[in-house]
Write a structure and sequence with these properties.
Length: 239
């Protein structure tokens, strides 16, 4: 029971954080639907992973293997499935009517996926893994979703004349960031599996890449949320 709470708590805390940032809160029923749809994407993700695993192959070269795993098996299918929820469901809601909504719905869909994924990981890795993922994987998923929602909101609301460009960014940017986020740890994993004494020659760049992507995304999303909140307050002041 404690592991279940530890697995779910980070996602719910971040969900509350995004909801509180919205001066015009979305209907809870819509957020619940979005969260559950995000959870449901875990099933097709594992189905796609089973189909794509053959493309990964053995660890011929640590970097090549890590890149294939990071992008083909994780980032592309995960972000594509979350994108379908935000684009085909959330963006078509009548409540999706201001830029802040992109962040809220994008993060909600992504946190739905992250919450269920976390349960699966923590059930095997225990409390230590739950703590590690609470400060890394779950916030990363929230950022991927928020960035995705930012560009979908641009495509629908603020800059529809460049819809194609914004929709491309809404999918490709989270995929790219997600793949880079995964690349460092997977490269280290490949080195450990293929090097007789990997700790002697373990490079520093994988850790630097991992933390740079995570911290950079977090700072960027906080700034975007601050800007969206400011726009909402300005809008409030005009009425």
């Amino acid at each position: 029971m404690l592991n279940l709470v530890a697995a779910l708590l980070p996602a719910f805390c971040l969900l509350i954080y995004f909801i509180k940032k919205d001066a015009y809160p979305e209907p809870m029923s819509r957020l619940l639907q979005t969260f559950l749809l995000g959870c449901l994407t875990i099933a097709p993700f594992y189905f796609l992973s089973d189909q794509l695993i053959g493309l990964i192959g053995p660890i011929d070269d640590p970097f090549s293997w890590a890149a294939r795993l990071a992008f083909l098996l994780a980032a592309i299918p995960e972000e594509l499935l979350k994108w379908t929820v935000v684009w085909f469901f959330c963006a078509r809601l009548s409540d999706f009517d201001e830029p802040m909504d992109g962040y809220v719905y994008g993060a909600t869909a992504s946190l739905g996926f992250a919450a269920l994924e976390n349960i699966l990981y923590v059930s095997q890795g225990g409390m230590e893994l739950a703590i590690a993922r609470a400060i890394t994987a779950v916030p990363a998923h929230a950022c991927f979703g928020a960035i995705m929602g930012h560009y979908i909101a641009k495509a629908v609301l603020t800059d529809p004349n460049r819809r194609g460009r914004h929709l491309t960014l809404s999918l490709c940017l989270p995929i790219g960031l997600h793949g880079l986020y995964n690349l460092g740890p997977l490269y280290n994993q490949a080195l450990i599996a293929t090097t007789p004494n990997p700790m002697v020659s373990m490079p520093i760049w994988p850790s630097l890449l991992f933390w740079t992507v995570l911290i950079g995304m977090t700072i960027a999303v906080k700034r975007m949320l601050k800007s969206a909140s400011k726009d909402q307050l300005t809008h409030q002041g005009m009425h």
